Structure formats: C-alpha cells, structure tokens
C-alpha cells in the first residue's frame, strides 16, 4: 500500500467505519435472500470511495447535520446495483475476488436485488427533503443505465473515437462520482459556486477513475484486481488503452474465427503480442 493511500485511510478511518455501519443499517430488507445477495458484494471489501467523497464534500461545505453518513450510502447502493447488473451483462465470473452473485443465486435474483438497491437509493434520497438531491440521483441513475447501453452498442467498434469513449464513461462512471460530490454540497446548503466547483471536480475525478480502471485491465493481475484481467478486450469493449493504441501505432489485426492478434509496429506501451478470443469481424482486416 502506498504511503498516500495509507495516510488517507488513517485520516478517514472514523468516517469509513460510520459509513460501514450506515450501509448495514439502511438496507431495510424483509427477505433474508435480499440481504444475503446484496451483502455478498456490498460487504466484500469495497473501498467506499463514493460515499466517502460525499461525506468529505459536505464537510468542506460546512455541513452541520448528522445524516451525512446515511445519505452517503445512496452512492454505494447505486454502485453495487450496477455491479450486480454488469456482471450478468458481461458474463463475469469474479468480483472482488469472489464468485459473482448471479453464479450463486441466479441471474433473476441478481437483477431484482440490483433493482431493490436502486429503489432503496431513491428512497433515501427522498429523506433529504431536497428536490435538488432527488433530481440529481434520478439523473445519475439515468446516466448510468444509458452509459452501459451505449457501451454495449459500441462493442467491437474499431473506429470508436476518444470523444465517444469519454461520453460513455461520463455517463456510466463519472456521473456517479460527480453526483456524490455535488450531493455533499447540496445537503450542506453550499453556495452555487461551491456546488459547481465540486460538481466539476467530481466529473474529472470520475473520468480519471475509469481511465485508470481500464488501464489496469491490461496491466494488473487477477489476484490484485479481484476480477479477471483482459475482460474488456475479450468482450470487445473499446477502452482508452486500445483506442489510443489503434490510433497512434501502426498495427496489423489478424482475425480467424474467435481469435484476435494485435501486433504493434511502433510506440506500443503493451506487450508486443496479445491474444484474446472475441469476434469483431468475420474476415481478416488490416488497419
């Protein structure tokens, strides 16, 4: 663990502990199955990055209430809901080093538990009694869904541009982080200037977060990352590392059946030769 990360965790230890308690106390399920399926991923070692951002954003805007931890769980519940749904769409096998929820309880249960977490998030947002917060959470939920659909539509699109990629990650990832920072300002009754500053900060942090995550899919390992590496390329997802490579390096793409070989001829940052099984085009193609 880096010194910076260690310092952050030590400084935020009390907040993180209170967020953890709030996550458990606010599920409000009456079926044990829902608690078990949600808890399988919710309490499997998440960083609590998004709720912590909301708490800290509220604090720097001089929030004086006692419900910041309760409101912060909105963003972890939303995040967890998307993970439950994504693992089904992506046919994933691991999440945070554990078998995905749908492999244990089935896809139907995983989808419905994800839906419950989305609904629970909106219920908690309503408890703020601030229409701006409710609208913000609604917009975030819409953005995340449309971002995932947009990404599905772009699978295998070798001509996807960086601008199009940024629009996808703005919706599917950055909007939630942006929403967490903005909501911190909203519950604190911050000035429009502070709200705007935190909104812009959250958006850019969200972009950086997703770009780093996409890079780790190529450079990390399964044990460290907690999920199978190389999944994006196998699934045909055009993320920034591959878009940048195809744009800036001469390359020869040889396809046969479900195999793809990328041979970089110049300035490639990744290994000279990688093989992943997914079908982009039925015939070989040179770019």
List keywords for this structure.
287 residues, alpha+beta, Farnesyl Diphosphate Synthase, 2 domains, four-stranded antiparallel β-sheet, two-stranded antiparallel ribbon, 13 helices
Secondary structure layout plus pairing:
Blueprint: H1 3-11, H2 13-25, H3 32-42, H4 49-60, H5 68-89, E1 94-95, E2 98-99, H6 101-105, H7 107-126, H8 131-153, H9 162-187, H10 192-219, H11 222-225, H12 231-234, H13 240-248, E3 251-256, E4 259-264, E5 273-277, E6 285-286
Antiparallel strand pairs: 1-2, 3-4, 3-6, 4-5
Helix pairs in contact: 2-5, 4-5, 4-9, 5-7, 5-8, 5-9, 7-8, 8-9, 9-10
Structure overview:
This protein is of the alpha+beta class and 287 residues long. It folds into 2 domains: 3-234, Farnesyl Diphosphate Synthase (Orthogonal Bundle), CATH 1.10.600.10; 249-286, no CATH class. It has helices at 3-11, 13-25, 32-42, 49-60, 68-89, 101-105, 107-126, 131-153, 162-187, 192-219, 222-225, 231-234, 240-248; strands spanning 94-95, 98-99, 251-256, 259-264, 273-277, 285-286. The strands form 2 sheets. Strands 5-4-3-6 form a 4-stranded antiparallel β-sheet, with no helix packed on it. Strand 1 (94-95) and strand 2 form a beta hairpin. Helix 5 runs antiparallel to helix 9 (162-187) and helix 9 crosses helix 10. The longest helix is centred in the last third of the chain and has 28 residues, at 192-219. The protein is globular and about 50 Å long. 34% of the residues are buried. Mean pLDDT is 86; it is low at 251-287.
């Amino acid at each position: 663990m880096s010194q910076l990360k260690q310092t952050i965790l030590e400084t935020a230890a009390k907040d993180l502990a209170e967020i953890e308690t709030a996550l458990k106390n606010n599920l409000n399920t009456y079926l044990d199955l829902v608690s078990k399926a949600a808890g399988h991923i919710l309490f499997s070692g998440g960083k609590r990055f998004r709720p912590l951002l909301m708490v800290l954003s509220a604090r720097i805007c001089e929030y004086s209430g006692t419900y910041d931890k309760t409101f912060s769980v909105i963003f972890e519940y939303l995040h967890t809901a998307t993970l439950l749904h994504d693992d089904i769409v992506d046919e994933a096998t691991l999440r945070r080093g554990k078998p995905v929820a749908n492999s244990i309880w089935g896809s139907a249960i995983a989808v419905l538990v994800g839906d419950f977490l989305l609904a629970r998030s909106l219920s908690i947002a309503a408890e703020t009694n601030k229409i701006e917060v409710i609208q913000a959470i609604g917009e975030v939920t819409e953005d995340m869904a449309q971002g995932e659909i947009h990404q599905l539509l772009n699978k295998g699109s070798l001509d996807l541009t960086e601008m199009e990629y940024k629009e996808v990650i703005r919706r599917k990832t950055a909007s939630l982080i942006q929403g967490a920072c903005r909501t911190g300002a909203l519950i604190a009754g911050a000035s429009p200037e502070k709200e705007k500053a935190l909104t812009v900060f959250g958006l850019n942090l969200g972009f950086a977060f997703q770009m780093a995550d996409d890079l780790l899919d190529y450079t990390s390992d399964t044990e460290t990352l907690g999920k199978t590496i190389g999944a994006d390329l196998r699934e045909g997802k055009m993320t920034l590392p591959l878009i940048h490579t195809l744009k800036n390096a001469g390359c020869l793409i040889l396809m046969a059946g479900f195999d793809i070989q990328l041979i970089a001829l110049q300035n490639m940052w990744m290994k000279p030769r990688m093989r992943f099984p997914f079908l982009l085009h039925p015939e070989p193609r040179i770019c």
